[in-house]
Amino acid sequence: MSLGEPLVELQAAPLGLDVPVRDVAILDPEDPPTAAAGELVLAIGARGRAALPALRAAGRAGAAAVAVKLDAPGQADALREAATESGVALLSVRRETRWEHLDSLARAIIAGPDAPDSPGAPEPNAGDLFSLAQTVAVLTNGIVSIEDTSSRVLAYSRSSDSDEVDDLRRLSILGWQGPEPYLSKLREWGIFQHLRSSDAPIAVEPHPELGLRRRLAVGIRAGAQPLGTIWVQEGAQPLAPLAEQALVGAARVAAAQLVRRRRELSADVRLTQTLLTGLLEGSTGPQSLATHLGLDLRRPATVLAYSAHTTEALHRSDVTGLISVHTAARHRTALLAPIESRVYVLLPELPPGLPMTTVRGWADEVVTAAREHLGVPLRAAIGSTVEGLSQVPDSRAQADRILDAMGRGGVDLDVAALIDVQAEVLVSEMLALLQERGGLRDPRLTALTAYDRRHGTRLAESVLAWLDALGEVRVAADALHIHPNTLRYRVRRAEQLTGIDLAQPQQRLLAMLQLRLPADE
């Protein structure tokens, strides 16, 4: 078995490691414990000791292995003993592993690298498609499955309520392929003909007499070549208003995944990411990426940059999937690259004269969807629109400047271009320079903030509020919630302690900047 340490751990192998695995069986907790010779049995819903009947039944049937999730480390001992007695291998599955991911990966391994289209099995590396299906489910408020051109299920979203799932969905998932009586109806209604010839989504109206709920579908296509279909079934709630738009983007993302998979996915993706990251960082020229993806070097391009309060939130697969799907829905050739604490989206080959408001709208859709669907607050910065791919590093640098300023505070926007925050960006960069180069700071102001730390006073804060209010004592006092006379005293006291003369314009200017530095500076 070659699933690897990240997903499963071998607990027992009484017959050795060379036992062939011929198929995968999913054992539902409500079904009687059965198995067949050579099967890998996935004991879903039966944790720990509850999996003992399945383990013993698998041994009697000559199954190859049983995969179980454990509630506590000590449970492995009893299961290992039963596995050894039964002559069947025991695999413990990590708690966070999704059964559908493990199932698809196991089937892909059994099919082998030369048989991606073997009947009944998802394509290799289908985990990416499962993530995509889940993202589409969140964006559409529906129940999603992704199928190949033979209506074999490649991936599907999770559904917490089985009552929401109609017969077509249920039978498709159980059999990894759409049942023929339903497929013939879809052919009769012209659904498949539309999906093969058009990029536009199509609605399939409900047919209660057939056990079918309303659904949307979109073809996955590479040019004129059909690759598959994404289906979204409506559950207890109506589909989201922008469900069709999300499907268009998802189809483009899925097409890229399926095409790359046919061209040896891992190597191709690594190369694309390496070339894109190199271009964004300025370490690689644009020609390699343009040649690799067939992009026009001389058409306009823009970089969008996204950040979150935590890097972990930003780099979650559902967040990056959401960014990818939304952006692909708006721009066919968009490319995404996570770099350190940010996610960058390159929009190459933009139409000449594309308004900034259009790109801003795309970014705002992503930020809004992340907040509403995933509960993740994102910030987005729009880099400059440059004349060609060779200037992409300049667009990325501008987007970074904007995000830096947004991260330091003082910018009450979720999406911004430089024109929105020009002053904030420049002041932010001046403050960064003051932080880095202590020799540019006035030691008297440094002494004032140190005095506040030692004595628990608020002199520096009061001086800054007074300066920000252009000397209007009552305005500054109201902002600090103190009496005007208290503010006057604090400003005089600050001048006495430090020798600063706030009547001098240059000293006022420096104080307005330096007092904005963090207090520990």
List strands and helices in order, with pairings.
Elements: E1 8-12, E2 23-27, E3 39-43, H1 52-61, E4 65-69, H2 75-86, E5 89-93, H3 99-111, H4 127-140, E6 142-148, E7 153-156, H5 167-175, H6 180-188, H7 191-197, E8 202-204, E9 215-222, E10 225-234, H8 243-262, H9 265-281, H10 286-293, E11 302-308, H11 311-314, H12 317-330, E12 335-339, E13 342-347, H13 356-374, E14 378-382, H14 392-407, E15 415-417, H15 422-436, H16 443-455, H17 459-468, H18 473-480, H19 484-498, H20 505-514
Parallel strand pairs: 2-3, 3-4, 4-5, 14-15
Antiparallel strand pairs: 1-5, 6-7, 6-10, 8-9, 9-10, 11-13, 11-14, 12-13
Helix pairs in contact: 1-2, 4-8, 4-12, 8-9, 8-12, 9-10, 12-13, 14-15, 17-18, 17-19, 18-19
Domain CdaR GGDEF-like: 288-404
Domain PucR C-terminal helix-turn-helix: 459-517
Protein name: Transcriptional regulator
Q: Helix/strand-derived class?
A: alpha/beta
How many angstroms separate the termini? Answer: 57 Å
How would you state the average pLDDT, rounded? 82
Report the major sheet: 5 strands, mixed
Strand order of the largest sheet: 1-5-4-3-2
pLDDT < 50 runs, ≥5 residues: 1-6, 113-127
Computed over alpha carbons, the radius of gyration is 30 Å
Name given to the CATH homologous superfamily of the largest domain: Reverse transcriptase/Diguanylate cyclase domain
The backbone outline, from C-alpha atoms, is globular
Q: Give the proportion of residues in helices.
A: 40-55%
The count of domains is 4
CATH topology of the largest domain: Alpha-Beta Plaits
CATH architecture of the largest domain: 2-Layer Sandwich
Number of helices: 20
Name the CATH class of the largest domain: Alpha Beta
In percent, how much strand structure appears in the residues? 15-25%
User: What's the count of strands?
Assistant: 15
InterPro entries: CdaR-like_regulators, CdaR_GGDEF, PucR_C-HTH_dom, PucR_C-HTH_sf
Pfam family, one: HTH_30
Protein name: Transcriptional regulator
Organism: Kitasatospora aureofaciens (Streptomyces aureofaciens)
